Amino acid sequence: xxxxxxxxxxxxxxxxxxxxxxxxxxxxxxxxxxxxxxxxxxxxxxxxxxxxxxxxxxxxxxxxxxxxxxxxxxxxxxxxxxxxxxxxxxxxxxxxxxxxxxxxxxxxxxxxxxxxxxxxxxxx
Length: 124
Known about the structure:
The chain has strands spanning 4-7, 10-12, 18-24, 33-39, 46-51, 63-65, 70-75, 80-85, 94-101, 113-114, 118-122. By secondary structure, the protein is mainly beta. β7 and β8 form a beta hairpin.
């Protein structure tokens, strides 16, 4: 398994932005697909974005989004994957997780490694 650590969560006002980070130590994230999920109280965990690992060859897009306000990217030099979230709304309040596996999926059960999560609260 891959040890993942999320950071960057916090309290933000509606309309604001946050950038979450997903880092790993001892293993490279470059060849792993990284999914971002969130779980609000009383709700199921849902996928919001995913970026394919370098080992997957495709002429199609390498990133997938459930919401156009979110952008996922990598910094291989820092061994980190980011989730940029803009125009945040109170409904975006949740614990956000990153997860690693071979490919992208919207199903949490398809990912074998998870971080501990970071809380995002959108409130005035």
